[in-house]
Amino acid sequence: MNHKKSTARVLTPEPGGTIRRPSQLVLARLSKLARTQKGQIAAIEMGSQEIFIGKDVVEATLKGWKKYPGQSFYFVRIGYPAVHHRRGGLRKR
């Protein structure tokens, strides 16, 4: 078997850390972008509230990591209520 070492970054939250939502000002800036960038992914760095936009989560994260290496981001799909959606439903057993 070929065992390659993973190159994925593993981010661990600070002890006692919680997930925060962006401020209303940042969400208002995103709603203004909905006309021109609908469907794009916005990665928000929570410390500075700076927004990085990409066509997918990976692209937005890489743009953000250029300025804030190793930081975690809050993701929003511009113009939609969720970043990802799941098709299909639940099956009864």
Proportion in helices: 25-40%
**What fraction strand?**
15-25%
- Compute the gyration radius: what is it? 16 Å
Q: Count of helical segments?
A: 2
Sketch the major β-sheet. Answer: 3 strands, antiparallel
Total beta strand runs: 3
Q: Provide the low-confidence segments as ranges.
A: none
- The best one-word shape is globular
First-last Cα distance: 37 Å
Mean pLDDT: 82
For the largest beta sheet, what order do the strands appear in spatially? 2-1-3
Q: H/E series, N to C?
A: HEEHE
State the secondary-structure class.
Answer: alpha+beta
Q: What does this protein look like?
A:
There is one protein chain. The protein is an alpha+beta fold and 93 residues long. It has a domain at 24-77. 27% of the residues lie in helices and 16% in strands. The protein has 2 helices and 3 strands; from the N terminus they run H-E-E-H-E. A 3-stranded antiparallel sheet has the order 2-1-3. Strand 1 and strand 2 form a beta hairpin. It is globular and about 45 Å long. The termini are far apart.
